[in-house]
Write a structure and sequence with these properties.
By secondary structure, this protein is of the alpha/beta class. It folds into 2 domains: 2-287, Spore Coat Polysaccharide Biosynthesis Protein SpsA, Chain A; 295-519, Spore Coat Polysaccharide Biosynthesis Protein SpsA, Chain A (Alpha-Beta Complex), CATH 3.90.550.10. Helices cover 30% and strands 22% of the residues. It is built from 14 helices and 26 strands. It has helices at 14-25, 45-62, 88-107, 126-132, 175-186, 206-209, 226-236, 258-270, 309-316, 334-341, 360-372, 392-400, 482-495, 504-509; strands at 2-10, 32-40, 67-70, 78-79, 84-85, 112-116, 120-121, 137-140, 143-144, 153-154, 192-194, 201-205, 241-244, 250-251, 275-278, 284-287, 295-301, 322-327, 347-351, 378-381, 386-388, 407-414, 420-422, 434-439, 468-476, 517-519. The strands form 7 sheets. The protein has an 8-stranded mixed beta sheet with strand order 3-2-1-6-12-8-13-11, with helices on both faces. Strands 19-18-17-20-24-22-25-21 form an 8-stranded mixed beta sheet, with helices on both faces. Strand 9 (143-144) and strand 10 form a beta hairpin. Helix 1 (14-25) packs parallel to helix 2, helix 1 runs parallel beside helix 8 and helix 9 (309-316) runs parallel beside helix 10 (334-341). The longest helix has 20 residues, at 88-107. The termini are far apart.
Amino acid sequence: MKRLLIGSPIRQKPPVLRYFLSSLERLSVVDHHIDYYFIDDNDVEESSAILNEFITKQQEANGSMSLLKKGELLTVYTRNEHTHYWSNELIDKIASWKDDIITTARDQGYDGLFLIDSDLLMHPAALQSLILAEKDIISTIFWTQWQPGTMELPQVWLKDTYWPFQSDRTMTAGEDADAAIQLVMKLRIPGIYEVGGLGACTYISRTGLEKDISFRKIPNLSFWGEDRHFCVRAAALGLSLHVDTKYPAFHIYRDSDLIRADLFMESTAQSLPKEAAVNKTGAPFIIVPGAAPKLTLSMIVKNEGDRYLRDVLQHHREYIDHAVIIDDGSTDHTGEIVHEYLAGIPLTYIKNDESKFHNEVQLRMQQWEETIRTRPQWILNMDADEYFEDKFNSELPQLLQDQTAYVYLFRLYDFWSEDQYREDSFWNAHSVYRPFLLKYAEGYPYEWKQTPQHCGRFPQNIYSVTPKTSSMRVKHFGWAREKDRIHKYERYKQLDPDAIYGWKEQYESILDAAPNLIKWIE
């Protein structure tokens, strides 16, 4: 049986440490005996006691040859809800301890070493995935808001010290920024990818251990942080660096993350296997079946009680997993319809005291922020008078399971009656494809078109990865009744009298007496 060493220098608060050790105990690997090498740098006696108890338990239960070494000369380390503060002295100390763990793994003939920071929680299948990748050096991905209110970024990067854009400033244009965007988007797709830098939860193969890898400073580099010096040295030694995104870890970066940490432990425990393989020693090995992608419906409604909302929600409820509804100040029974027709489906319902439609971008941004607050996977953004043709229900799973897709474009047909759509020089929306379905990438810096009308239902910069088109068609009933057409005509004339944000001739064509209509065929 192969031997694997898990190593970590640890100074951690007791609640975080308990989560960390619990996640290590859940790790499942085939044909590997696991030992631990922890360096106890705790300044809290309870944390040291927790570590001692864990090591004793492993030795007694599994015959583990685990080590617990007490650190010396505590160095100041400050953490708060804003960030973590690292001094050069502390970084040097951590680097020397990690090198000591590497030396132990190398000299004692371990087949692999897994170095992990003590504020990370692992998915039960993550370590086995790293081993099976058969890479020299490979990390499990995790995502962190390094400062509050900024975009989440992964702990891996392309080159130099980190990303060509930082989490606390606007991304600059250029080839590097474009490459970084592509990588951020790609890292949301489960897989294994080559990177230029990594750290914090890293598996090193025996091949890597046999090289002169080290976290010590490279004298002629000014890069800050031991992981950067490790990665530069490893690359210079000819070792490749990779990241595994199939089973992301969870980073307890702030105390406020403890609630989500509990959810992570619970959700990954629930994903633990309905079936298991048995390895050569007879021990069970966990296989986590892939979960179906989740779909969130995002919608704005206002006074839809006597229009199409019932039919729309009846169609959508067949395939959605969550709904986010922004009620823009309805004065009728719209809210009651929403709750009745979405009963049994997780619902986020927010009602504005005053309508924001006069400045549509504010309303759309509110819709977006409330939707992404639910941490969606896929977002279906539909208006309250739109739904897909019937066969969409059967075609949707294939769209969501395409791991190369980020945005889907569809054709929208403007109905001028219950079974006819309009087609002429002013009304031909169905001749182009428009975005309705988006895979949300949490690290991507989404930007909105800042216009009070016609700002779009999605951020304007969603096309960095080439979108895909679908033959499924959207039925739009917003113009299907004469009284609705008159109402919209008057609203456009009021909100955009000079057609600054739209097309004057199209506005006037709304009231055409004899438009060209085509029979809809389902």
